[in-house]
Model the fold of this input.
Amino acid sequence: MIGIFDSGIGGLTVVKGIMDTLPGYDIVYFGDTARTPYGTKSSRTVIDYCLQNTEFLLNNGAKMIVMACNTASSVATEAVRASFDIPVYEVVTPAVDLCLEATKKGIIGVIGTRATIASGIYERKILEKKPQAKVYCAPCPLLVPLVEEGWLKKPETKMIVKKYLHPLKVRQIDTLILGCTHYPILKNIIASKIGKRVAIIDSSIAIATQVKAFLEHNPVLDETLPKTNTARFFVSDITPQFQKTAKGIIGKNLDLEQAEAAAFF
Ligand code: DGL
Done:
């Protein structure tokens, strides 16, 4: 199975991308709803959570891991790769690659959680590949709780998005990276506030394309992945709000399974 995890609901945007790009592949998902958000926590804590999440997914049949969380990808990729002998995919690199294909002026905005922006990973990776680029980053700490809460169309959410994007808008960015897998759920609001001329880079689509290419080049691993159209969705805390928002993302009711607390604490 392809194992995918996030701090909560945001990773379902990646699940949707992978289901659309690799139809039929079995998926096992873990949303760490009991410990969300990750973006306000220290690197040490996020790394510990990511190691536990990976182990949990491997114990439930995963043969490769997609860290469908920019915060996890920013701070824990090396630790997860060093601890487990399986392919581990992160969402930052594919978003950077897609962004560099899309940008015309090289004036790039990045939004993400505090932890992702503080890690400096997007700036670093963009400038490594395009040193003349101008990169402007903005942490948007209120957006993850708004999404988890299901406030997807509220005027308050629109107002907050507008305020967060203002400093990027005045820099006249031509490309905006959604550096958090929760943000594609607010894509329409973000697009309307940043303006039509700005290309929006959604890491959930970028990662799905990269995983597909990886499997095409690794037929031995690909053969071990079952393709029976099965998807299991584990969370560390089942809430009615998660059910509702999840349905909006995947397009159908999900049978959520409670992950054993013993696996994490
Ligand atoms: N979806 C996660 C990300 O991409 C959200 C992080 C959080 O829990 O704060 O960063």
Q: What stands out?
A: The beta strands are 2-6, 27-31, 64-67, 88-90, 107-112, 134-139, 175-179, 199-202, 231-235, 256-258. The two ends are 25 Å apart (CA to CA).
